[in-house]
Amino acid sequence: MIEILSPSELPRARATGALVARILQTMKARATAGTNLLEIDRWTRDMIVEAGAVSCYVDYAPSFGDGPFGHYICTSVNDAVLHGKPHDYRLADGDLLTLDLAVSLDGIVADSAISFVVGGRGSQADLDLIDATERALAAGIAAARPGARIGDLSHAIGQVLTAAGYPINLEFGGHGVGSTMHQDPHISNDGRPGRGYTLRPGLLLALEPWIMADTDELVTDADGWTLRSATGARTAHSEHTVLITEDGAEILTLAP
């Protein structure tokens, strides 16, 4: 299913995006050495409930997961890159943490992810990983406009990641959003330009480049959800929800 939002729905989409951005930035500020991942999950729950919103994760039970996710935010640490299930772990300075959040407010979903180093002083290799995903995300957004094809976005993202020297996994990527979290079209993190669905004003897309330092192979934790690099290498993940407008793309989950 591909949804196209009407002009009357756009204010609600912007409000959802702003909420997701605000929660992520609040959790980033609170994610200091000694903070427990379960505390981050609880604080996220409180902010979602206070806003009158609904978590997209608690009851999420796709075929690739082990039952309902059961938490409010994904917390992926170091070699974990996607679907990190919060657990009893206290962060340490130098941990590379990815927070991924999807929320529905007034019937419209927004989805975003940020990666950062706890304590702010990461290795150059970690900072390069994060920078590559952020630059790839910016390239994908720059390519997003009415009349562009999904392959144009995938190609723009892949060019940045490949030039930076990172392998690219195509199992998981970006996707459409709307009244539900995961919709068509799928947006791979590499691809051929001029291919795929043609973008139209009112389309919401979650673009999400993610990489592992030296592999494109994932392994799944015993929790049935958390995906890690097969080599134990560090990882990074950046994501925004964008709205296709009449003349380009508007980022709805930009940090205030």
Automatic annotation (TrEMBL):
Keywords: Aminopeptidase, Hydrolase, Metal-binding, Protease. It holds the Pfam family Peptidase_M24. One of its GO terms (biological process) is proteolysis. Its cofactor is Co(2+); Zn(2+); Mn(2+); Fe(2+). It is an enzyme of class 3 (hydrolase). A divalent metal cation 1 binds at residues 100, 111, 239. It comes from the Bacteria. NCBIfam families: met_pdase_I. Monomer. Belongs to the peptidase M24A family. Methionine aminopeptidase type 1 subfamily. This is Methionine aminopeptidase. The gene is map.
